[in-house]
Amino acid sequence: MKRSPLYESHLRLGAKVVPFGGWQMPLFYRLGTVGEHLACRSAAVAFDVSHLGTVHIEGPGSYDVLQRSLTNDLSRINPGRAQYTHLLSDEGWVVDDLIVWWISKDSFDVMPNASNTSRVIQALGGQERTQERALIAIQGPKARALLGSISKVAAGVGRFAVGEFEWEGYHCRVAGTGYTGEDGVECSVPTGCALDFWDALRDAGIEPAGLGARDTLRLEAGLPLHGHELGEGITPLQVGLEWVVAFEKGEFIGRTSLEREAKQGVDRKLYGLVSATRQPLREKAKVLAVREGKGARDPGDLIGVVTSGNYSPMLERGIALAFLDASAHVEIGDRVMVEVRGRGVPATIVDTPFWSHEGARR
Amino acid sequence: MIVPEYLRYSSDHEWVRLEGKRATIGITDYAQDSLGDVVYVELPAVGERVSPGGSLGEVESTKSVSEVYSPVSGTVVVVNDTLNDFPQNLNSEPYGTGWICEIEVDDVSEVDELLDAASYRLLTES
To answer: Which domains does chain A have, with CATH numbers?
Structure first.
């Protein structure tokens, strides 16, 4: 089991540490998952996400390798910018969703999900640098203001920009990215100064948050997670991520299959569900049609399955992402029944994100 | 972990406080701590007949769901429906405002057979 450079600090801070993707990572600290979630929505928190991979790709031809492997179009951005993109299989299935940090002309850092790092290296080449750094996400409406007292440069990096900053003589990288639906940055700091940097964040008033809150935050923001909404058998088109697929740029892995699917239309689509009560909706729960629905099915018919579900601290309702069959012809606002441990929980189909600073969906 | 001396405990991490024939039931500090933040409680129904090991509803946290088991035989007479709006009381006061229900017990000697505080503490430390 791998450990983050911040592992000792997590224990000192009273974190509940659990296995996650081959790593021992903090699930929550003393505030608890809901407290950490709310702190991120109203102020700022710091997550240790060192379990995510860093794969460094450099040299002439790097751009071409990424451009003909990944779905998004690097020509839409420039060096000094980050891009969300997918690596597909020939079938068009999502092998991994990742962020590319374009550092300089022929130098890239690719950030895969923990368990997919080796598959990404297999497809793209490059050199794994995961063990050389800690990756720390600082997220929330006050993230930049509080981080500013530690590093003005890190706090000032633009949205989806990539920058560099010095910390105690160490060379660090930062990107204006995150996975919470909040403003914020992600800092890659060498292991030599990682603990000091992590402690400085707390001194600056940024509370630590665990992977429990990271999951409820991303779910509330309607963001897909590999292994749930993305993975084998799932294409970017089914989860509504057409914007990640740049057909116009030319060849990329999985393109032929995706074009076929785009022409035929997807046979299922990802939707948001909000429960009528606080009861969390749960992964693998069946979604059933009800009489009020406009669907072409009969009440009680199976029309889909929940891919991620939990409790939304902002809505104070159960929420879920679910694949619903195209043949059910559902619309936003339709009611469905979600079968949670044998009992029907009434829910409504909504647009995502479930919650943003502009308002909530019910 | 708090284990009050004046309560009785089941090995499934419920606590019992007996007054006359009425038993108040809740889950222990150890149970709430291992669950994490409780966000939903499925309460039993008033009038429901229960027996030891039978279901007394469910407690659900952001990370998992856990069945509540009845430590005694009897009839559910009161449920703590403030938990519908404040399930977090199970975390903050598991032995106080986080109580789950009251059961009119059939046989008070069943309560004597439950664990005392010292035995329960041993169970959670093993």
So the answer is: 2-53+130-220 (3.30.1360.120), 242-350 (2.40.30.110)
